[in-house]
Amino acid sequence: MSFKGKNILVTGGCGSVGTELVNKLVKEAKVIRIFDNYENGLFQAQQRYKNHSNVRYLLGDIRDKERLEIAMENIDVVFHTAALKHVWACEYNPFEAVKTNIDGLQNVIDYAMKHNVEKFIFTSSDKAANPSNVMGTTKLAGEKLVTAANYYKGNKRTVFSSIRFGNVMGSSGSVIPVFKEQIAKGGPVTLTDPKMSRFVITMQQAADLVLEAAVQAKGGEVFILKMDALNVKDLAEVMIAELGNGKKLPLVTEGAKPGEKMYEELFTEEEATRALEEEHMFVVLPQLTELFGVKTNYKHLKPAKIQPYTSRDAKLLSKEEVKSLLKKEGLI
After folding, report:
1. Average pLDDT over residues 266-281
2. pLDDT at residue 91 above 90?
């Protein structure tokens, strides 16, 4: 699949991954519609792409069906990145998480199907694997909704698939900007637990995975990049050493926030029985593959060897590797 000449809708297009997607597609697509409820983000996007006449800036919310239907007209590919993503905020406001991450997603699915969109790619999270919080639960429900759309779409051409990835390095509200701010203020730098580990992915890797999923998708799969994992305490210590101007800033352990896990999973033990493996990613097949034959489209892939896939068991990046990655991404 080529994106050349395609009409593309990016929901949450002012977010970190959404912005990177637009950056990669702007020279190829016929039209890109950035759909977001963040007015200032749309203004910044308009400044960024002012020399690109193929970009549209749509202020709206995925909860608003009428606005969404207008945005969906004549669209070929949908990248659905809009979501409430902060674990603590979703724990405190679970009803809002449901309205956006489940009801809003279903709205996007419905209008993509109605307008016979070619491909629909939903960005999920590693928190969807064995979820312990509202955010992860809504993302898992979202994956199920996306997969189910393939079952009842009738004669529509739309292919619905999901991708699942870990923490996007440097994204808004993520731990790296938080550590930067704490270091700039002279500390302390706060940790949940010294043993906590996380999967990490760069913004470029995240966007590349989304685009690759759109090319490969047959319907109902969940694509998972093989990601690096790191110890969060190591990350903090590297950032203090690089940004702390030689000062030895204190590290304070605060304990887990509501809904937080000590480690993350990319797929569960049950999902591992349905997972296939490529060189740099996994493909988790839907449970009801016989309904639309997706399994037959992946005969060239072998079953995954890792069962399950967690940051607790993964080989962690060394401090030198963490420092190198941060520098490569311009984060320190």
Report:
1. 88
2. yes
Q: SS3 for the chain, per residue?
A: CCCCCCEEEEECCCCHHHHHHHHHHCCCCCEEEEEECCHHHHHHHHHHCCCCCCEEEEECCCCCHHHHHHHHCCCCEEEECCCCCCHHHHHHCHHHHHHHHHHHHHHHHHHHHHCCCCEEEEEEEHHHCCCCCHHHHHHHHHHHHHHHHHHHCCCCCCEEEEEEECEECCCCCCHHHHHHHHHHCCCCEEECCCCCEEEEECHHHHHHHHHHHHHHCCCCCEEEECCEEEEHHHHHHHHHHHHCCCCCCCEEECCCCCCCCCCCEEECHHHHCCEEECCCEEEECCCCHHHCCHHHHHCCCEECCCCCEECCCCCECCHHHHHHHHHHCCCC
User: Catalytic amino acids?
Assistant: 127
Name all domains of the chain by residue range, CATH numbers in brackets.
7-166+202-226+269-304 (3.40.50.720)
- pLDDT band of 294, cuts 50, 70, 90: low
Per residue in 24-56, pLDDT (tens digit) is: 999 999 999 999 999 999 999 999 999 999 999
